[in-house]
Amino acid sequence: MNREKRTEIFRRLREQRPRPTTELYFTTPFELLVAVVLSAQATDVGVNKATAKLFPVANTPHAIRALGVEGLKTYIKTIGLFNSKAANIIKLCDQLIEQHDGEVPRSRAALEALPGVGRKTANVVLNTAFGEPTIAVDTHIFRVSNRTRIAPGKNVVEVEQRLMRTVPEEFKRDCHHWLILHGRYTCVARKPKCGECIIADLCEFPITKRPS
Q1: Domain 3-19+134-209 identical in fold to domain 29-129
Q2: How far is CA 118 from CA 88, 93, 139, in A?
Q3: CATH of domain 29-129
Q4: Summary mean pLDDT of the chain
Q5: Which residue from 117, 131, 184, 186 puts its CA 20 to 30 A from 199's CA?
Q6: Mind listing the pLDDT tens digit for each residue in 115-154?
Q7: Where are the domains of the chain?
Q8: What's the pTM value of the predicted model, to 2 decimals?
Q9: Annotated active-site residue in 5, 77, 94, 120
Q10: What does the pLDDT read at residue 165?
Q11: Are 97 and 65 in contact (CB under 8 A)?
């Protein structure tokens, strides 16, 4: 895919959603961090239901640590892998308090050193909480990037690196959200809604494979 086509794709996505953001509910970087950790192999809707009960009670590292693992589990037990997530979040709170004065760090290395935080989670926090032009490749972005040929790659790291190289600077900060939302609502996994797609004429997904 050439630069002109890629630029037009992101121009249209920006026109459709001028101020995109995550669909996870949060008001602070710490709330976002916890929500993203909880979102692994879970839906944003499910996470939001849990954090709507958790955050009014505990939304700081000290407050969540005070709940303890078992206390935290009572709020997140509807989310997949809640046992391991509860343990990681308590350890994460310990580390934030002991090493970062209870604040969410703004460096990738410090974020990835936290229990339960990998590259994707760090990218989401850096982008959404701190406005960094990072790109967190999830299943939606991986699918859309490969299907449209915006940034094909064999794995999430390859796709991320290609997006970082090829997305024009003016779109880089928000492209993460545009691609997730496009994959969640239009370029869906089983039967993409090509007839409703605003970039269908620019997409390089073979015509013969598109649903009628």
Answers
A1: no
A2: 12, 16, 15
A3: 1.10.340.30
A4: 94
A5: 131
A6: 999 999 999 999 999 999 999 999 999 999 999 999 999 9
A7: 3-19+134-209, 29-129
A8: 0.87
A9: 120
A10: 95
A11: yes
Q: What digits encode the pLDDT tens for the residues 22-50?
A: 999 999 999 999 999 999 888 999 999 99
Q: Does 101 qualify as catalytic in the annotation? A: no
Q: Are 158 and 141 in contact (CB under 8 A)?
A: no
Among the options 138, 154, 201, 209, which is catalytic? Answer: 138
**Is it the case that residue 11 has pLDDT exceeding 90?**
yes
Distance, in Å, from the CA atom of 131 to the CA atom of 128, rounded to the nearest integer, reads 6
CATH class, domain 3-19+134-209, is mainly alpha
18: closest CA among 174, 176, 155? Answer: 174
